[in-house]
Amino acid sequence: MRAWECGYASDYWMTFKQAKSAGGNVRKGEKGSLVTFWKLYDTKDKHTSDDITVPVLRHYTAFNLEQIDGITIPDATVGDVTVEPFAPVEQAEAILNGYAGRPKIEHGGECAYYRA
Questions:
Q1: Residue 57 β-bridge partners
Q2: Does residue 67 lie within any of the structural domains?
Q3: N or C, where is the chain less crowded by C-beta within 10 Å?
Q4: What's the pLDDT tens digit per position in 11-66?
């Protein structure tokens, strides 16, 4: 959701430390996003030696790869992009064609969006 909210095309995120160790640099002035990580961890009770499961909670500040220089974005398109031909859904087209003053719809490009 944060990537969508900020308009990032990449789905990849890194901490500052991960970016540095991968040879990248977070651009000056970029603001990170809070990431909360939790899992259940199997361990032994210190007093009874019984098997127990405890929750582990951590939080980090992460940066989208579009905020980082020096790292190739894995999901970036390279070269020519093959676009599948558009195949309309007949039922959806029938509903759309039933609108008075229907909006103009264009197909193509590399991302979906609405523009008034």
A1: 38
A2: yes
A3: C
A4: 899 999 999 999 999 999 999 999 999 999 999 999 999 999 999 999 999 999 99
SS3 37: strand
Is residue 92 included in any domain, yes or no? no
Share of the chain above pLDDT 70, in %: 85
Number of domains in the chain: 1
Query: What is the C-alpha separation between 97 and 9, in angstroms, rounded?
Result: 32
**Could you tell me the residue range of the domain that residue 59 belongs to?**
2-72
Whether 108 maps to a domain, the answer reads no
| Cα distance between residue 62 and residue 34, in whole Å | 6
17, part of any domain: yes
**What's the predicted TM-score (pTM) here?**
0.56
pLDDT of residue 58: 94
Q: Supply 68's token pair.
A: 């980082």
Counting every residue written for the chain, the total comes to 116
Residues in CB range of 49: below 8 A, 6 or more apart? none
**Dihedral angle of Cα 20, 24, 29, 35, to the nearest 10 degrees:** -60
